[in-house]
Amino acid sequence: MKHQLIHIRELTKTYRISTGLFRGKHDLRAVNGVTLEVEQGTVFGLVGESGCGKTTLSKLLLGLEQRTGGEILFNNRPTESIPRRDLARHIQPVFQDPYSSLNPRKSVASIISLPLKVHRVGTMVDWSRRVQEIMDVVGLPPRLANSYPGQLSGGQRQRVAVARALIMHPDVVVCDEPTSALDVSVQSQILNMLMDLRSELGLTYILISHNLSVVEHMASRVAVMYLGRIVEEAPTATLFRSPHHPYTRALLDSVLTPEPEKGLPENHLGIAYPDPIDPPPGCTFHPRCPCAQDVCRKIPPCPVNIGNHMVECHFPLNNSTPKYN
Ligand code: SF4
């Protein structure tokens, strides 16, 4: 029977930021009313451009940021009622850059065993045994236990980061761009390892990426984020086969360009990502949307559910050729 391990309801995170000496302070709504559910044992993909709020959402999940509104439930329990230390036993991160997330002065064994020490789990003898076990699980040879991060390859460093995340046997791993800092040649090794570990250990992943190809390969469900909101969410195969939101269609087009890292194709979206401090009225995507109508410039769209496919657009079934206004 399906079990929704994480419920996020109307989650909001607003930062009060200064924009200059004489311009005062402004609100930046990094996460703006996000609602979603993550099923146990699945991979939930979260995609969008830089600055769309996906990393802020992951920090809220990990308890590294305090929400402004809404709620997050883990196993039907509000995360704010779970002590930070206990939450860390259940939800662990793997960050993008293994170069900066590992302490260069600590040995591999010391880095991997750190969560056990912080949470006072077991004895020194247990730590050594569990480090060896988890190194074996992530494919690190025992001889590297006394090495330092600077002596490892990028792929080995990311395996150390995964080992550190898994040593507490978490239920959920938040993978924030887990391979984007790695050479292309080792990216697939790390992704395949993550998928093997998910099925072996029964893990749930929240996979954050700007790379739709990675998400298509790994996730069973995908949410597309734009200016702090989920604008489309569906089972992966459905979303890739039949994207309903113009922004998702543009993202998919950018994957098909020879250099997807250059971002969205100009011919579809024209202008740059809007200033999140001063978002456009109505549908915040309207200045870039080839399908925008008058209503889009005035009234924000509400989420529409078409079966198990959610889209936040005034014209959710308009899959025709974009109308350029
Ligand atoms: Fe485009 Fe209008 Fe839909 Fe927004 S609501 S995505 S502007 S068609």
What does this structure look like?
The chain has 325 residues and is of the alpha/beta class. A hairpin with a 2-residue loop joins strand 11 (303-306) and strand 12 (309-312). Helix 5 (124-137) packs across helix 6 (154-166). The chain is globular, with a radius of gyration of 21 Å. It has a single domain (4-312), classed as Rossmann fold (3-Layer(aba) Sandwich). Helices cover 33% and strands 24% of the residues. The protein is built from twelve helices and twelve strands. It has an eight-stranded mixed β-sheet with strand order 6-7-8-3-9-10-12-11, with helices on both faces. Strands 2-1-4-5 form a four-stranded antiparallel β-sheet, with helices on one face. The structure holds iron/sulfur cluster. The site of iron/sulfur cluster has 13 residues, from loops.
